[in-house]
Amino acid sequence: MMRFIEGSLAVSDAVRMCRPDVVSAYPITPQTHIVESLAEMVANCTLDAEYITVESEFSALSACLGAVAAGSRAYSATSSQGLALMFEVCFNLAGMRLPMVMTIANRAISAPLSIWNDQQDSISLRDSGWLQFYAEDNQEAADLHYLAYKVAEDQKILLPAMVCFDGFILSHTYEPVDMPTQEEVDAYLPKFNPCQRLDAKDPISFGMFAFPEYYMEFRYAIDQALQQSREKIREAGKEFKEKFGRDYSALVEGYRLEDAETVLVAMGSLCGTAKDAIDEMRGAGRKVGLLKIRTYRPFPGEEVAAALKGAKRVAVLDKNISLGSKGAVGLEVKDVLYGSGIPVLDYIVGLGGRDMRKRDIERIVTLAEKGEGDLFYGLREEVA
Amino acid sequence: MALSVGCTAKPGKSRGNRTGAWRVFKPAFKHNKCTKCGLCAMVCPEGCIIEQEDEFMIPDYDYCKGCGLCAEECPAEDIEMVKEEK
User: Fold this and answer.
1) Looking at residue A21, what is its pLDDT?
2) What is the bridge-based pairing of β-strands A344-348 and A375-376?
């Protein structure tokens, strides 16, 4: 059913229909509405789950870790500093091969303090072994939760997943979102069937000590699971299309890529602005297209390479900066296109809530056409 | 240890953890000047030096971490630390 709904509430309602057994979260702007809404559902008995209130994000994710180890489906949500505080637990969930889903309402990281949007928080956890999905709009943000649980809990994958959507830009914005029924979600997402769990009658410990002779093999196993999850995401996306009509069978999405000379690459809500800007530029005869990356981990290298092979130049829009290097998406795209001769220009944009408008996208395309890239876009004059 | 999903383990003893792999120098018990005093077994922090039937001491190399305390303390200077090539 189509509903006109705030992004956070679309996400919390999607989570409700995923039937989590345990929800543990600590409120932080701009994630707050999601967990407020879930707490209300539990209090009103419209969601049959344990809602564990905790004193910090570290405890929230630790509670989820224990819940998944005991065989429950768990859910959490956070932003920015909250995710930073979860750093250690994030690696533990992946290493213990405990699948769960966590929503990230993307927000800049302190210092300086900023409650506004960029994607530095989740990008900083890119090496933790979690799957990472980035939503362009609230429809996608809601849908990716059903898909994320399905992929994460697959017996061959068994890894946690982050569904990232831009704080405020999506989380606090009302959009029409097609919400499925509980029956439809139940038909798509089976019950969590843990391959091993905490059981007092048959005790087991998770994430034990590994000797130098074994540690690398455990890390290799996580990497292999993440590499193999690409195929599982395609399968789950295909089934999603069959059941709900929206196609997530590819890890990337091309927009007006045919004969495009300059191809923009972006993640998240920026893609919507870029599509409008591209329509205007196409109208003016400029051959511009967009490659949206929906799945950042695992990185869809082959799909990115195939989509960009006809481009004359690639302009990557990064809402993050790996300080001392470049933007995280730019680095990946440069790696994928290494040896192709196609120039990849990286632009750091929109940090800490700096607005990105259609005219900015157009200016970046102009910069790319001139070969000017690998820079922070739109800096104030004072910095010079 | 074994390669289990999520590095899980059933309850057990730490004897399964063969810490001998940490060793760089291996104590060679020469049994030339050894007086069978047993001081090496007493100072061994790992408790892995075991008295044999003939009363000579031999370390269990599965657990000896190569700390060298036995060689340092041996009154007969009959234990030599030898660089171990792996």
Assistant:
1) 98
2) parallel
Asked if the Cβ–Cβ distance from A207 to B3 is below 8 Å, we say no
Does the beta-carbon distance from A96 to B21 stay under 8 Å?
no
Q: Looking at residue A307, what is its pLDDT?
A: 98
A197, A201, A208: which to substitute to probe chain B, counting the most B Cβ within 10 Å?
A208
Closest chain B residue by Cα to residue A225? B5
Q: Is B2 a member of any domain?
A: no
Taking the C-alpha atoms of residue A301 and residue A307, their distance in angstroms, rounded to an integer, is 10
Least confident span in A236-245, B15-24, B50-59: B15-24
What 3-state DSSP class applies to A56?
coil
Least CB–CB distance from A196: residue in B5, B11, B17: B5
Based on the structure, what is the number of domains in chain B?
A: 1
Chain A CA closest to residue B14 = A209
Domains, chain A, with CATH or none? 2-244 (3.40.50.970), 252-383 (3.40.50.920)
| B30 within a domain of the structure (yes/no) | yes
Give the domain extent around B33: 18-83
Nearest to A203 among B5, B11, B17 (CB): B11
- CATH number for position B35: 3.30.70.20
Q: What was the pLDDT predicted at A61?
A: 98
Query: Which of B80, B64, B67 shows the shortest CA–CA distance to B31?
Result: B80
Instruction: State how far residue B62 is from chain A, nearest Cα, in angstroms.
Output: 13
10-residue mean pLDDT series, chain A (384 residues)? 97 98 98 98 98 98 98 98 98 98 98 98 98 98 98 98 98 98 98 96 94 94 98 98 98 98 98 98 98 98 98 98 98 98 98 97 98 97 87
B10: nearest CA partner in chain A:
A204
ipTM over 0.95: no
Q: Report yes or no on B1 lying in a domain.
A: no
* DSSP secondary structure letter of residue B85: P
Cα–Cα distance measured from residue A267 to residue A213, given in angstroms and rounded to the nearest whole number: 39
